[in-house]
Fold these 2 entries.
Entry 1:
Amino acid sequence: MMIARKITGDARTRNFSMASASSVTSVNTSVSCKNQHATAATEEPTGVPWVPDRASDECMGCQVAFSTFRRKHHCRNCGALVCSSCSRGRARLNGLEQKSRVCDICQRIDLPEGLWQEWKWSIEILCSGSRMSGWWSQVLRRNPAVHMPFEEIEARAEYFQELKSQPEIALQVFEHAVKMTQDFQQIEIDVERTFGPNSLEMQNSSRSLTYGPLIVYALRKGKTWKDIVTWKHALRRVLICYVMFQPTIGYCQGMDYIAAILLYGSNWECHHAFRLLVALMEKYDLSSVCAPGLPLLNLKFYQLDELVHYHLPELHHHLSLHGIHPNTYASGWVLTLFASFKTLHPGLVLSFFDGFFAKGWKSWFRVALAILATAQQRLLQTHTPTALIELLNHELPTLFPENDEKCREFFLLANHFKVTNAALVYFEDNFDRNSTCESTVVETYYSNRGEARAS
Ligand SMILES: [Zn+2]
Ligand SMILES: [Zn+2]
């Protein structure tokens, strides 16, 4: 049990961009050549890819046209193309000594007046015609209803403002203040990472960065650079608001990818994405997966392992023989709902979210099984634990090309796996009764990797 807990603790702080690193390469490179905006200049110190100069003739802040007198500048935090009056602020970024230019939105981060009121848990305004309305109609079918304690949130929003003016006092007065502060800091770091290219690519091309899969996908779907800048700012707001809303759960790495997908599906409407995020947490039980200590992560691994055993027995035998269990490869699948693009490209992830909002975790297990089934031949031909781990963690995207026909085939395959709630509940009961199972799995994993075990 000790070991299991240790692993879950580590998993919470794991950096998914590292884990998902090389796996998105194929997604990026295959589309970047088609997209002329895909290679970007960057300011060396902060490493944030800039919106290309030619992407906009007007300031992304005040919408006034650039001219000889109104020059183009880049926010070093989000890469936006802004005029000098919209980027007067300077901030220390990435722990750099000198301060860098930031746009007004990155400088402020505050929440507009009345936003909390606007975010009431009601259904009236949700007919945007976006993907979100479909997701939302599924949310509404689920029980139980979610209640938002608004007065409390107002108080925490006050804390957030207080924190900037008088940090010492704010830390003493507000409950959860320390954890919230840590979460805010982590969000600042992670927002850019969510959109960024993977670390391997950055190593390979020191000067010209390629954008991450989300940006490449959005540009290819005809979205503008202005949309992308809006997206980054919106992501930050949604995550900060969630921390204020539910500080005991707070921010868990992985949530950034989920919120980014929700924002895309909501046409970057913060309050829509925020509601969806809250719905995923409360109605789809994501909160028990990403709460501190990741309480349900091992259960998901256990359930997946049992399902692989049942549906793909040959593969299960092969993987078990080499000590490969879901905890070796599926933590990103659980914590980001496949949205880290470690395995599936953004198009597939959006379709997965359609299924997840409709069917919940059953559809997650089906997709996980479909991924393994697609990779089955290659996995069976691989005979060392290291090569298997490498394949599962880095090489899967090559098996899922961005192609509508393949996408349909993939979901047909996924739906062919029978996963019932009854089976999941049965495994859950089993998991509770034999809590030693998990540590056996974890121990096998560690002994195979030759890593030191915590006692
Ligand atoms: Zn401006
Ligand atoms: Zn900015």
Note: The chain has a mean pLDDT of 77.
Entry 2:
Amino acid sequence: MKKIWLLISALIFIIIGVFGFIFLPYFNFNVDSQQLEKSFSSFGEQIYFSGRGEDGRIIPYNYGPNWLRMHGGGCSACHGDNGEGGLPLMMSNTEASSITWESLTEEEHMEGEDQEEHPPYDKSTIKRAIKDGLDPAGEPLDNIMPRWQMNKEELDAIVIFLKDLD
Ligand code: HEC
């Protein structure tokens, strides 16, 4: 009879596991912000990898794909761990560009192949791209790039992080 109970408890654990997996994105809203900070070596790194800003809040954004809303995530979800871009993006045929400081600020910075050429980025146009989705020429970026509603501290931190990415 012991075996039956073993089987039943195994089943219960599997069910809890499956439920947990499905609802994880919904339970994920409140994180311990101090715990979160500890897992990254800087505030900018936290934003880059988790999409969470001050006090662990999920940084709100406009546009961007639905899967990002479901699963959460930061810049690394599209631009890669090193900002190199080029990852295949779900439900899109646009590529996330390289956003290392070097490639953003070099003369011939190009976005996707079908994009117009534009002047190189500087600190303030990078911030504008992140917030308002405009390239240095003032042209809108693809809608898959979220428009992040960051506050000043968050913007400063992410720019410092991008500078260190090279
Ligand atoms: C859902 C995918 C996605 C996420 C998440 C994302 N980006 Fe992007 N990003 C893109 C795509 C795609 C482009 C290229 C848009 C284009 O070429 O029009 C882009 C372009 C950019 C650009 C302009 C580069 C250029 O080539 O003109 C910057 C700067 C940038 N992203 C920074 C960020 C930062 C910082 C974050 C995190 C806070 C972030 N992105 C998160 C998809 C994403």
Note: Helices lie at 2-27, 33-38, 43-50, 66-71, 76-79, 101-105, 123-132, 152-163.
